[in-house]
Design brief:
The complex is a heterodimer.
Chain A (H helix, E strand, L loop, with lengths): L1 E5 L10 H14 L3 E7 L14 E5 L2 E6 L9 H10 L4 H11 L4 H10 L5 E5 L4 H4 L9 E4 L11 H6 L5 E4 L2 H11 L6 E3 L12 H8 L5 E5 L8 H12 L8 E5 L12 E5 L3 H10 L2 E4 L8 H8 L4 E4 L3 H10 L2 E4 L2 H13 L1 H15 L2 H16 L1
Parallel strand pairs in A: 1-2, 1-5, 2-4, 5-6, 6-7, 7-8, 9-10, 9-12, 10-11, 12-13, 13-14
Antiparallel strand pairs in A: 3-4
Helix pairs in contact in A: 2-3, 8-10, 9-13, 11-14
Chain B lengths: L4 E5 L11 H12 L4 E7 L14 E5 L2 E6 L9 H9 L5 H11 L4 H10 L5 E5 L4 H6 L7 E4 L14 H5 L3 E4 L2 H11 L6 E3 L12 H8 L5 E5 L8 H13 L6 E5 L12 E5 L3 H10 L2 E4 L8 H8 L4 E4 L3 H10 L2 E4 L2 H13 L1 H18 L2 H19 L1
Parallel strand pairs in B: 1-2, 1-5, 2-4, 5-6, 6-7, 7-8, 9-10, 9-12, 10-11, 12-13, 13-14
Antiparallel strand pairs in B: 3-4
Helix pairs in contact in B: 2-3, 8-10, 9-13, 11-14
């Protein structure tokens, strides 16, 4: 089959959850199909400033068609956003949202309108941006939408109502996303597949070398990712401090690995490593008694899967449906609601480390193998081409 | 028990001239009224070409149904023909398509605001006609409760990309004919959208008198009947030419009777009788006594007059290039199709010479109409479609 993947950004330098997923999917599909990519010249997801050369090039052995960004994010977008999401506004304002958010890329839309029928299936990534919301309606009869939707206000805006009724198939990253979309749009009748992720096996890693390099002794509780308030790290540190002040607290160190974007308290039992390499990542995960992910808004929780790959249990928030759902399905960890429950969750995770870690590992090996992922992806493509 | 609620969106509504989607919408509203809390959202336009604001904006009532009219901000633009040519030409852009829809009118943003607000409070929204602004931009605001009555025919506009969401996003589609359904499914590959052939019911009075008609208009001998707007776009010109040529070559004496608003020159000859707009009684009286109804138009989504002719037991003569009228006449074995002026003449001769054949064709037409195009069946099919919409959204 001829398959086109449409995504707002694509390239080596591009960092982003949905863009990363799109790239993996394009590469996996290219093993059995002819795959091309249609994208923009943007690299930065905020400004959408032109970065790549427009035209057709090659990446990962795929033909990539890049179309110029005619306009990026409206300089007044913040004000516009708060008006449309929270204030008095018109239907016309809502219709204007995708263009003002950017990337506005009319040539990409013309390409879809004129050449869309060359492809058996067109896979659209990320519901929110204009290439999808204006592009998918040009080829609904052959479209699959991988929405990567969160429970956020823009999801309710006018341009997205029809979008979620149009494709021949819907792809979700998690069961929670599927439930959110079904609840919001009542489109259960559209054939769908929950794709999840595929993961490479961890390469060689050295736990002792990691401990030595960072002078880490004793039990470790690991946080891996951007260290910021947005990710809930301030609440994590508060919960950790509260736990450690108890008489019956276990000895241990909270290790924060990732780009530091906030103030870290100066305590012996809290260590901030900054960014660590990929090899060190698996060593850190294996060294830890448990991985903790305090974010409320995680949409995928890849780091949980990586922890389970090396048999480490995870601790997540009960009020993040995605990560809590992953933990429930895999049995690879525990969840907490508040500081008091955090202490209890930590105790349980450490006490049952081996059993929880083994359950997580078994689940990730079953669900995130490339074979399993490819089968789900093939199903999505088949649904869209039917 | 409260009734389910239904909002009907249509570009014009009420006391307006002409046939097509608007009177269709009104007759459906009247029949669905006992089953729903029903309301109509429309514009202040009366004229389908200019969309000039003629009605008063705001809430009114038509046939005891609340009707909310919204002001037309822009009617048909003066450069509409240019916009249309550009949108239909090769190498046009998406912006050209959108410009065409806006230039066509009626641009009524307040109607959209209303659909956005009220359309999501009611259980279902029924949109009439795929082609105009209120449906193109209104339907995507409430797709999960939208039912579309496209009244589509195979014309250049339906090939525009801008119409794809209109046909792929609604919860259900109510087609007028089997032919329309096939055409739409072929173009849009949207067969998974629940759909039915619904159409309209055809009511004909029992009291129909050919004699009364002949007396009133002094018409003698066999006559063929045309009912509808007398315009080039409905192929009236070629019909006049063919009829005149047939008569001028010593064909069996016959009259061509024209009923409807004249919008083009009609040949000044004794055997072509222009009656203008007439009463329903005259129309059905004329149908009762005609050799056949002639429907030369190529672009009909549903020819109500053909259905009425069949309901009166009279055959229909049509152009074989008309997918819908000829498709129905062929399926129903209720008419004859011509490929040329000469064939049209032959068909007329044949039906005049063999009244039994004409009666047989008309009788199969009557059976065809009773199978599909009666109000009890139409209402029941709508109720089924709406129940499906509610089931999915409950």
């Amino acid at each position: 089959m001829n398959i086109l993947v449409v995504v707002q950004r694509f390239g080596d330098e591009v960092v982003g959850g949905s863009e990363g997923h799109a790239r993996v999917v394009a590469s996996r599909l290219a093993r059995t199909h002819t795959v091309e990519v249609a994208t923009t010249t943007a690299l930065d997801y905020w400004t959408w400033a032109p970065h790549f050369m427009p035209g057709t090039s090659s990446l990962d052995g795929l033909r990539v068609h890049r179309f110029p960004v005619a306009s990026g994010r409206d300089p007044e977008f913040k004000a516009f956003e708060s008006k449309v999401l929270l204030g008095r506004h018109s239907v016309a304002d809502e219709q204007d949202w995708p263009r003002r958010q950017g990337p506005h890329c009319p040539e990409l839309l013309e390409f879809l309108r004129e050449h869309g029928r060359r492809y058996d299936v067109v896979l659209f990534y990320t519901y929110i941006y204009e290439p999808t919301v204006r592009g998918l309606p040009l080829v609904p009869e052959r479209a699959a939408l991988v929405s990567t939707a969160h429970d956020e206000l823009p999801l309710r805006l006018a341009p997205y109502r029809a979008l979620f009724q149009l494709p021949r198939a819907l792809g979700f990253l998690t069961p929670e996303e599927r439930e959110l979309v079904h609840r919001t749009f009542r489109n259960e009748h559209i054939p769908h597949e929950t794709l999840g992720l595929g993961l490479d096996a961890p390469g060689a890693y050295d736990v002792d070398a990691f401990r030595t390099a960072h002078q880490l002794d004793g039990p470790l509780v690991l946080y891996l990712g951007q260290v910021s308030e947005g990710k809930g790290c301030d609440e994590l540190i508060a919960a950790w401090t509260a736990y450690r002040s108890r008489d019956d607290a276990r000895p241990g160190t909270l290790v924060l690995a990732g780009t530091i974007r906030m103030e870290i308290p100066d305590r012996r039992d809290v260590v901030a490593l900054g960014r660590i390499s990929d090899e060190e990542k698996y060593a850190a995960l294996a060294a830890a008694d448990a991985l903790v992910l305090p974010s409320r808004f995680e949409s995928l929780g890849i780091v949980l899967l990586e922890a389970w790959q090396v048999g480490t249990p995870v601790i997540v928030r009960t009020d993040n449906p995605v990560t809590a759902g992953q933990v429930t399905r895999s049995g690879g960890g525990v969840s907490y609601r508040d500081d008091a429950e955090f202490a209890d969750a930590l105790e349980r995770a450490v006490a049952q480390r081996d059993a929880l870690g083994a359950a997580g590992r078994a689940w990730v090996e079953r669900e995130c193998s490339w074979d399993a992922f490819d089968a789900r992806l093939a199903q999505l493509v088949a649904l869209a081409a039917a | 028990m409260t009734q389910p609620s239904l909002m009907v969106v249509v570009q014009r509504y009420g006391d307006i001239a002409g046939g097509g989607a608007e009177p269709h919408a009104r007759s459906v509203v009247q029949r669905l009224r006992p089953h729903f809390d029903i309301e109509v959202a429309t514009t202040t336009a009366r004229d389908y070409w200019t969309w000039a604001n003629e009605f008063t904006p705001g809430l009114t009532a038509v046939d005891d149904v609340p009707v909310r009219r919204f002001t037309v901000e822009r009617g048909r633009s003066r450069d509409f023909r240019r916009r249309e040519r550009r949108a239909f030409s090769a190498g046009h852009t998406l912006d050209d398509e959108l410009a065409f829809v806006e230039a066509q009118g009626p641009v009524a943003p307040e109607l959209l605001e209303h659909v956005d607000r009220r359309g999501r409070e009611v259980d279902h929204v029924l949109f009439f006609t795929y082609i105009y602004y209120p449906t193109v931009f209104g339907l995507p605001l409430a797709p999960e409760r939208a039912v579309l009555v496209p009244t589509a025919h195979d014309e250049p506009a339906i090939g525009l990309s801008v119409y794809k969401p209109v046909f792929c996003a609604p919860r259900a589609i109510a087609f007028n004919t089997e032919e329309e359904r096939r055409m739409v499914h072929r173009r849009f590959r949207n067969a998974r959208v629940p759909n039915e052939v619904v159409g309209v019911g055809v009511d004909v009075p029992v009291d129909r008198s050919a004699d009364r008609f002949r007396r009133r208009y002094a018409i003698e001998g066999p006559y063929l009947l045309y009912v509808g707007r007398i315009v080039e776009s409905k192929q009236c010109g070629p019909l006049f030419d063919a009829f005149a040529r047939w008569q001028d070559r010593q064909g069996t004496r016959a009259t061509l009777v024209l009923m409807g608003h004249r919008e083009m020159p009609v040949p000044d000859r004794a055997d072509i009788r222009l009656l203008g707009r007439t009463s329903d009684e005259d129309k059905f009286d004329a149908l009762a006594g005609c050799v056949a109804l002639v429907q030369p138009s190529l672009l009909e989504s549903l020819s109500i007059i053909a259905l009425e002719s069949w309901a009166c037991g009279r055959p229909v003569i049509c152009d074989v290039r008309s997918p819908v009228v000829w498709g129905m006449a062929y399926r129903a074995r209720a008419g004859l199709g011509y490929r040329s002026a000469a064939e049209l003449a032959e068909i007329c001769e044949l039906l005049i010479a063999d009244p039994h054949l004409a009666a047989r064709l008309g009788e199969s037409g009557r059976e065809f109409v009773e199978r599909t195009y009666t109000w009890p069946r139409v209402v029941e099919t709508y109720l089924d479609l709406f129940a499906e919409v509610r089931a999915r959204n409950s």
